[in-house]
Design a protein that fits this description.
One of its GO terms (biological process) is transcription initiation at RNA polymerase II promoter. Keywords: DNA-binding, Nucleus, Transcription, Transcription regulation. It is found in: Nucleus. The structure is a single chain. With 208 residues, the protein is mainly alpha-helical. The chain contains 9 helices and 5 strands; from the N terminus they run ααααααββαβαββα. It folds into 2 domains: 79 residues, no CATH class; 68 residues. It has a 3-stranded antiparallel β-sheet.
Length: 208
């Protein structure tokens, strides 16, 4: 009986010791894990590691995109540049073109010469810009230009003058300041100032 009591007490001691060890282990694990988040939050290096694969993937995709543009035919690269010049109506250096649409103008002689000689592009020795057939930038300048063409000016030659030129042409026409008339083959339309027609009857007979 005494032996059994000793065994029971031994088991209790073992259980107590095991419990204490478990608590100590838990506290140790907690103390080790607690400081880990702090350096991660304080230092930029740990936080940058998870994003590295994503950044690498994005850079790879971007480089592939740039490479595909620069391997495209010369005409396609020129169109890409001219589209940027047309849309922005700003003057770009070759470096700025590279940043805007990834076409390396300085690195491709054919593209450079093609742009320099293109009738839709103006090059001043440093910058490229879009060159419309008629240099007008707003409705007032548009009216001045139309006034110079007594026989009428082709609408198709005005459509790239500035971004909202077609809206202004509609306003000029609908506002009664100018009339649209067809050429002999009905295309393209000519725009003339009403004053160029003289009398109201002549305007009605000659205009649309």
């Amino acid at each position: 009986m005494a032996l059994q009591e000793k065994l029971d007490r031994f088991k209790q001691q073992q259980e107590k010791c095991q419990s204490m060890l478990s608590n100590i282990a838990a506290k140790s694990a907690s103390s080790r894990s607690t400081p880990k988040p702090a350096p991660a939050a304080a230092s930029p290096f740990p936080s940058a590691r998870p994003s590295a694969p994503v950044k690498f993937s994005n850079d790879t995709e971007r480089l592939q995109h740039i490479n595909s543009i620069r391997k495209a035919p010369v005409g396609a690269q020129m169109k890409r540049v001219i589209d940027i010049l047309f849309q922005t109506r700003q003057a770009f250096t070759p470096e700025q073109i590279n940043e805007a649409c990834y076409v390396d103008v300085n690195g491709n002689k054919d593209v450079f010469e093609g742009l320099r000689k293109n009738p839709k592009v103006n090059y001043d020795g440093k910058r490229f810009s879009y060159k419309a057939k008629h240099d007008v930038k707003n409705k007032n300048e548009l009216l001045v230009l139309i006034r110079k063409y007594i026989e009428g000016i082709a609408v198709i030659d005005l459509r790239d003058a500035y971004p909202n030129v077609m809206e202004d042409l509609q306003l000029v026409h609908l506002g009664g300041k100018a009339l649209l008339t067809p050429k002999a083959n009905c295309f393209p339309l000519l725009l003339r100032l009403k004053s160029a027609f003289g009398t109201p009857n002549a305007m009605e007979n000659g205009g649309l």
